[in-house]
């Protein structure tokens, strides 16, 4: 083992620890690792920058624009509502949901599918007396399984495809992964509608639990005639910097002021609604002219009117809010919303809302103003996971959605018959969307998830360091030494397991990029097909079922489904085993023999 290998393993190890402990945003952690490897001389500037111009990474960027256009059209909602039907029949309805969702996910990014359909599924379940926890994990898993069918099903597939092209290999054909993807999807769906359905818990989501426990985090005070700050602003009254409490709404007869600004005036008879650590409300009760109203208990329903609504959102992995406090980001003015409560791992975080440092997967209950859903950063920072009064979707929006799907289908046919490459087809598709005015330049820019793209591009450089330093060959020789006495099949299982463990702990794309040079080194040493090992890496990096943190879609449904960490483990471990065995056996039979 050389010093270069020791250094690379140390940097990658620290990067993984940082990702697991969430010390910063994932894109910053991976990019920092890339910079360290560049400055150390392990890789050249060309090697460090190769990911930023990789065909697979650029294709992912284009797909974000296409998925955003379809998401805004609202056709997902209509499709799923009609598929589920009017009657709730448990497992039969679950099967009706999973089949079309898995097909959609084969051609579209799974994250917007789950983010868009989660509130639709929740509302349907509530309307039919079915626990949403029976449907939301299967919704996430169905998109993961379906994404394994085609080259455009997941960003991971496109990334590995780009790595193959960079490695002077042919890359994947459009439906090549279907040899593995279709059997694993069928087996996975059958498992989830039978054994998996029985293993899934019956729970309500966090927002529903909060509606039943509003006394724990909402408090109401009435402004009386002797209040010394009558007709003065919230700032002047000292209600902006309270210990443990946050003023989120003022109810004045039929008028509701929310979110509350520092310049909002306080008048006699106002009902002041606070959230946070309500045990500290005694301090305000002692203030002259403020009193609790014993005849009225504030509830979530009291806070909703024609202009605002209480909604639930999940902070995304690539949100600009990660590592910042609610107060620091100036949440109220930036999003036209006030945070009522914050949950992490199904537990409400107590204390002053403004001082809570936000993390990926945090579930926020928000009193949202009329402009909340149309603010520019909403799509990148949050997943809205509760039914909301969405902006009106016109007939033209729906027509644009179907036109987008139609042109996308044409591009898929061109790629399938090898008329043009995947990257060229997606470039043409985006140009068509712009020319036909289905999307604007501003909408295309908002759809691009730059943090995700930075992770992918940076991971390419980290993978190059693993290869250039000799780390890949060193790890590969160790794997061969350990697994060769057990046979080729055992080596395939080891590579799959390593990749799958990485993807549960860190991001799926980073796991694929790090394992790719190791897998290629194994393929060259043993004379195996490069494509065979690439398929193993692709499926293993995508098949994240065991934890809620390994994959974005699992994180989206975590809070809304009322799940605990162990629920993913209990349902996901058998599914992971089935997918692993199916994948390895098919790869061994089809590509290796």
Description:
It contains 25 helices and 10 strands. By secondary structure, the protein is of the alpha+beta class. Strand 7 (337-344) and strand 8 (347-348) form a beta hairpin. Helix 4 packs across helix 18 and helix 19 runs parallel beside helix 22 (508-526). The longest helix is centred in the last third of the chain and has 28 residues, at 565-592. The model has no long low-confidence stretch (mean pLDDT 84). InterPro entries: Cit_transptr-like_dom, DASS-Related_Transporters, Na/sul_symport_CS, RCK_C, RCK_C_sf.
In short:
By secondary structure, this protein is of the alpha+beta class.
List keywords for this structure.
5-stranded antiparallel sheet; 25 helices; alpha+beta; single chain; transmembrane helix; monoatomic cation transmembrane transporter activity; 593 residues; membrane; RCK_C; Cit_transptr-like_dom
| Biggest sheet architecture | 5 strands, antiparallel
Distance between the termini: 34 Å
Beta-strand content bin: 5-15%
Strand order of the largest sheet: 3-2-4-1-5
Globular, elongated, flat, extended or rod-shaped: what is the shape? globular
If you compute it from the alpha carbons, what radius of gyration comes out, rounded to the nearest whole angstrom? 26 Å
Average predicted local confidence, pLDDT: 84
Helix content: 40-55%
Segments where pLDDT lies below 50 for 5+ residues?
none
Number of strands: 10
Strand-pairing-aware structural class: alpha+beta
**Number of contiguous helices:** 25
């Amino acid at each position: 083992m050389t010093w270069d290998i020791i250094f690379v393993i140390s940097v990658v190890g620290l990067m993984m620890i940082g990702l697991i402990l969430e010390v910063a945003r994932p894109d910053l952690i991976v990019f920092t690792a890339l910079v360290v490897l560049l400055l150390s001389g392990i890789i050249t500037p060309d090697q460090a920058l190769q990911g930023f111009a990789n065909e697979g990474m650029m294709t992912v960027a284009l797909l974000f624009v296409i998925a955003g256009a379809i998401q805004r059209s609202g056709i997902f909602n209509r499709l799923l509502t009609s598929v589920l039907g009017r009657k709730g029949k448990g497992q039969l309805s679950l099967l009706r949901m999973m089949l079309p969702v898995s097909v959609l996910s084969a051609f579209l990014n799974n994250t917007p599918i789950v983010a868009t359909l989660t509130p639709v599924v929740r509302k349907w379940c509530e309307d039919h007396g079915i626990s949403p926890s029976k449907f939301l994990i299967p919704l996430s898993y169905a998109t993961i399984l379906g994404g394994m069918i085609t080259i455009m099903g997941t960003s991971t597939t496109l990334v590995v495809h780009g790595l193959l092209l960079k490695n002077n290999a042919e890359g994947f054909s459009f439906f090549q992964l279907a040899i593995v993807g279709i059997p694993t999807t069928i087996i996975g769906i059958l498992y989830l509608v039978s054994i998996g359905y029985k293993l899934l818990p019956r729970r309500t989501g966090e927002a529903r639990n909060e509606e039943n426990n509003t006394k724990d985090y909402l408090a109401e005070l009435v402004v009386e005639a002797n209040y010394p700050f009558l007709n003065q602003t919230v700032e002047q009254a000292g209600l902006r910097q309270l210990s443990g409490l946050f003023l989120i709404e003022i109810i004045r007869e039929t008028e509701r002021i929310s979110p509350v600004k520092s310049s909002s005036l306080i008048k006699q008879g106002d009902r002041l609604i606070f959230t946070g650590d309500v045990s500290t409300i005694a301090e305000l009760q002692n203030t002259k002219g403020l009193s609790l109203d014993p005849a009225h208990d504030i509830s979530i329903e009291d806070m909703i009117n024609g202009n605002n609504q209480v909604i639930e959102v999940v902070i995304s992995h690539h949100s600009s809010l990660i590592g910042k406090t609610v107060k620091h980001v100036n949440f109220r003015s930036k999003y036209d919303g006030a945070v009522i409560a914050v949950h992490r791992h199904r537990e409400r975080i107590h204390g002053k809302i403004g001082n809570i440092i936000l993390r990926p997967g945090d579930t926020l209950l928000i009193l949202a103003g009329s402009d909340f859903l149309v603010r520019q950063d909403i799509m990148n920072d949050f997943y809205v996971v509760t039914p909301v009064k969405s902006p009106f979707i016109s007939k033209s929006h729906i027509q644009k959605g179907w036109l987008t799907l139609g042109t996308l289908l044409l591009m898929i046919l061109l790629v399938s018959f090898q008329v043009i490459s995947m990257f060229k087809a997606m470039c043409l598709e985006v140009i068509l969307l712009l020319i036909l005015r289905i999307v604007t330049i501003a909408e295309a820019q908002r759809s691009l998830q730059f943090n995700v793209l930075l992770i992918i591009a940076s991971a390419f450089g980290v993978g190059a360091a693993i290869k250039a330093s000799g780390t890949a060959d060193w790890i590969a020789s160790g794997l061969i030494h350990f697994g060769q006495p057990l046979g080729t099949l055992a080596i395939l299982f080891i590579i799959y397991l390593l990749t799958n463990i990485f993807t549960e702990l860190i991001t799926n794309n980073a796991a694929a990029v790090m394992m790719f040079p190791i897998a290629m080194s194994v393929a060259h040493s043993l004379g195996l097909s490069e494509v065979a090992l690439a398929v193993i890496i692709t499926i293993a990096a995508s098949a994240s079922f065991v934890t809620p943190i390994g994959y974005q879609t699992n994180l989206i449904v975590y809070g809304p489904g009322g799940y605990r960490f162990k629920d993913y483990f209990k349902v996901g471990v058998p599914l992971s085993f089935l997918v692993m065995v199916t994948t390895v056996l098919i790869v061994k039979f089809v590509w290796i023999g």
